[in-house]
Amino acid sequence: MNKKVYRQSLAAGIVVLAISATAFILTFEMPGLEAIFPRIASSILFLLGSALAVTNGLYLLRDAPTNEAPVVFSQFYNPALTLIIIIAYALGIKMLGFYVSTVMMMFVFMYFMGIDSIKTILFTTGVVTLLVYFVFSMQLRVPLPKGFLL
Amino acid sequence: MLSILQQLFTLECLLALVLGTAGGLVVGALPGLTATMGMSLLIPFSYKMGPAPAMIMIGAVYVSAVYGGSFSAILIHTPGTPASAATAIDGYELTKQGKGLKAIGVSTIASVMGGTISAVALLFVAPQLVKVSLLFSTPEYFLIAIFGLTIVGSLSSDNMLKGLISGAFGLLLGMVGMNVVPYARYSFGNLNLAGGIDLVPAMIGLFSIPQILSQAEKRVRRKKEGESLSADRELRGLIDNTRGLKGSFFPSFEEFKTLLPTILRASGLGIFIGILPGAGGDIGSWVGYNDAKSRSKNKELFGKGSLEGVAGSEAGNNAVCGGALIPAFTLGIPGSAGAAVMLGALMVQGFSPGRELFTKYADMTYAILIGFLVANILMGLFGYLVARHTVRLASLPQGILLPVITLLSVVGSFAIRNNIFDVYVMLFFGIVGYFMKKFSFPAAPTVLALILGPMAERNLINSIQMAKVNVALYYLSRPLCWVFLILIIGSLVSPVISKKRKAKKAQKYA
Question: With DSSP H G I counted as helix, E B as strand and the rest as coil, what are the percentages for chain B, rounded to 5?
């Protein structure tokens, strides 16, 4: 169990190193003063990422004890499905229009989360959508995107 | 003074105050929602209001959500916000002993007192700090921003390294586009990115989406509905038990006298913790709780139902709110994630923190600060009226709550600039924030770095231009820079030393 925690932190350290190295390389195309701060920040991130990777690598070799619990990847199943709903909603807004995709998202998301009662789904969707219409479209006059449907 | 009151006592401000306080109580009482999430979702609703009502509303949500978290912590052992986790320990024990109502009463008194004292401190200390800040020039402001970033990394989490990485990551994200310099950095030819990352969608993403995804982890598939029903039944049972709450809401005068020193001490500690960048209400409540425990004559009651424990924790977490706004309004360094959201809301309204807030816009600023003070008192009144009923909100299914938060996150991100790209930015930060949460990287330093990064860079560039020859010598020739350099080194070294000391102590007793 300990090894898994350190392995995950080591991997996180390597990801940080990759991000900072990329950020540093991208500064080569920046002119003079504009490149100073990105170079400082990416160098600091690189050092911190190295520290994270090295310390966890050493802990891994020593099999040191830890109180932390490792991340279990099966936990990502429901969040991944939720994320698909949210991304589909965000992309759908431009194509179907804000209100149509909102109604669809509310239906799908509520059903996915275990709300079986059609009355509850209809009522919640209706009330919340009307509220958003009243506040954002009527009061704040936000031009919410319209798609080919509405 | 009259013009300040004229700004405050408008129908818009009073409505904002009442709605913000009531809304904050609801956000706080709902487990799974946090004060920062409620505040960041409110910015898009409020940005077309005047600056005073908008800031008063968000400030009211801030303080009352922190207080509201204690209701479910005390009555059903489920902290409404992370800041009320310490309250749950003794609060729920008191509920089991039939003293739940009194525990809520003590929480109300402690929260109101802690919040009010911190609001008074904010009113009096902030203008003085602004006067001190007149001594600062660009090198000092650069070092203040760096100090804010280092201390936020070291305080925000058990793992200092991960806190610092979060901060440095936020620095890089803050450099996207033409935020500070007239060159589109890290924008990959994308026109939207060239404009820079807007703070509001980033905050909504970091505070709302990870919460939605974390709550979704608890979803039970239909095959296993039996488990879900039994968990629901248990929660409903706890909520039903609160129907019969009896006894007195307020503690007796004798009890209040014994609690008063605890409340005052925890308030002082809370203000101090609030001023330190990044140490939010959760740390304030634990410090207040531990202080109450270490000085109590009835230490044996802690963990078994101590009113002092509830008072210490609640005064501590509410005192953090005002304390955290002191450096935010004066130096632009938010003391907590909540203060960072307040600062973001202020910037959305077109104002910058610092001297001008207390000179050119003094009427508006003092109206906001007095509104903040009134919100602290009003939340106590609302709490007295509705505390025992709001706990029922905890039974609201996540299946309804999560789609509503998703909708508000999306529409809120879009509404700030009427740009669908901001929705994608919010999603990006949400996904990154979720993985950061899973791998124990705190999100608060990233948000603070998004605010402090541009401030640090602007002042670094200006000081390089002012130095003309050698920047290092220019910095070292300024006495105030030495002070901040020592503070920066101290903030980096002290957690390491204290960790080693603790390890040595543990070895000694093992």
Answer: 80, 0, 20
Using a pLDDT cut of 70, give the percent of chain B over it: 91
Does pLDDT of B332 surpass 90?
no
- What is the distance between the alpha carbons of residues B337 and B325, in angstroms, rounded to a whole number? 10
Residues across chain B: 510
Strands (E), B85-167: none
**Which pLDDT score, from 0 to 100, does residue B352 have?**
84
- Which structure tokens are listed for A21? 């190295």
Positions of E strands within A12-84: none
Torsion of CA B49, B50, B53, B57, to 10 degrees: 40
Q: Which residues contact B120 (CB under 8 A, 6 or more apart)?
A: B322, B373
Please list, in sequence order, all residues whose beta carbon lies within 8 angstroms of the beta carbon of residue B359, skipping any fewer than 6 positions away. Answer: none
State the average pLDDT over residues A77-85.
93
- As a whole number of Å, the CA-based R_g of chain A is 24
What does the pLDDT average to over A89-110?
92
Q: A113: distance to nearest CA of chain B, Å?
A: 5
Q: What is the pLDDT of residue B407?
A: 92
What would the pLDDT profile of B44-95 be if each residue is shown by its tens digit? 888 778 889 999 999 999 999 989 888 888 887 777 777 788 888 888 888 8
Closest CA in chain A for residue B158: A68
Cβ-defined contact of A38 to B217 (cutoff 8 Å): no
Q: Is A70 on the interface with B (CB under 8 A)?
A: no
DSSP string, B152-191: HHHHSSS-HHHHHHHHHHHHHHHTSBSSSSSS-BT-TT-H
Window B:148-187, CB contacts with A under 8 Å: 161-162, 164-165, 168-169, 171-172, 175, 180-181, 183, 185-186
Across all residues in chain B, what is the average pLDDT? 84
The token pair that represents B39 in the structure block: 């505040």
> Which of A34, A74, A137 to mutate: most B Cβ within 10 Å?
A34
Read off the tokens for B462: 């200006």
* 8-state DSSP, A68: P
The shortest CB-CB distance from A16 to any of B165, B214, B415 is to B165
Query: pLDDT (tens digit, 9 = 90+) per residue, B131-154?
Result: 888 888 889 889 988 888 887 766
**CA-based nearest residue to B175, from B492, B400, B460:** B460
Residue of chain B nearest A17, judged by CA positions? B165
B189 Cβ contact list (under 8 Å, min separation 6): none
Q: Among B181, B188, B434, which would you mutate to test the A interface (most chain A Cβ atoms within 10 Å of its Cβ)?
A: B181
Q: How many CB atoms lie within 10 A of CB B304?
A: 14
Q: What percent of chain B has pLDDT over 90?
A: 22
Domain extent listing, chain A: 2-71, 76-139
A94 touches chain B (CB under 8 A): yes
* Sign of the dihedral defined by the CA atoms of residues B59, B65, B70, B73, in that order: negative
Which range has highest mean pLDDT (A29-33, B17-21, B156-160, B384-388)?
A: B17-21
Please give the pLDDT value at position B233.
63
Q: Is the pLDDT of residue B222 over 70?
A: no
Residues of A with Cβ-Cβ distance to B460 under 8 angstroms: 36-37
CB pair distance less than 8 Å for B181 and A110: no
A83: contact with B, CB 8 A cutoff: yes
